[in-house]
TrEMBL record:
Belongs to the metallo-dependent hydrolases superfamily. Phosphotriesterase family. Keywords: Hydrolase, Metal-binding. The modification N6-carboxylysine is found at K131. This is Phosphotriesterase. It comes from Streptomyces gilvifuscus. InterPro entries: Metal_Hydrolase, Phosphotriesterase. It comes from the Bacteria.
Amino acid sequence: MSSVRTVLGDVRPEELGVCDAHDHLFLRSARLPGQELNDAAAARAELAAFRAVGGGTVVQWTPYGMGRRAADLPDLSRASGVHVVCATGLHQAAHYSAQLVEELRGGLAEVFVAELTQGIGTSGVRAGLIKVAGGFHALDAHARWTMTAAAEAHHATGAAIAVHLELGTGALDVLDLLCGRLGVEPHRVILGHLNRSPDPVVQRQAAEAGAYLAFDGPSPAHHATDWRMPQAVRALAEAGFGHRLLLGGDTVIAGARSVDGGPGMPYLLRRVRPRLALELGEELMDRVLTENPGRAFAVQWR
């Protein structure tokens, strides 16, 4: 039987409730100096705020080496009543020191498998998905290395692979590599940030291939995404791909949290959901936020 691996153990997909399919409680990167998500009290308050507007599950895409604070996640989940899914995986090289990347050479897939099956460090928390990243309109050597390791870990465990698309680009290159060359079934791939490059042809091709399409996060001012996203998801739904849509908040810096004055996790349900319900209808919106994540992240664990 398939289950979703949360930080408190495996649960049935139908137990997730309303799901933020891509977000962060903790995150640290050299690319975001001074903007770390590293405050457990703020994370707890953010989960409580999400719960208060009807949220049931948060999938944290923070991968290896970026301040996941996995040991803190079980207590936060219990206190808030929100399921939390934790990621393994590796982001773009720019987020890490060259020394750390070199230390992982030759054993990256093994790290992913261990975190999915045994636990992250001494926390006992097992990851529930693999997160990797592409580049801008291309896959560099680092991306190919991490995706190859992700595919190996997927084949060993069954875990889904979530992919950061840089500014929403490179979706088809990712699918060519993961599914075409590395044998990952398309429905085990979740493509993130497709809203950041609102190309309806690419989105349609990715959906036709069988991947899940994640529209995640309110846009910065220079991204023509928020106002185009409703028509994009409507076009995909009308083409028969409503079952492939996922929604997330992608809170990556402290100032973006609702408890710090930003939109935060509640924004997904306070603002995004009602806006998209006008395009998709209430029934499909409910499925996008509940049934679709249940299928996307559920695994018959090996």
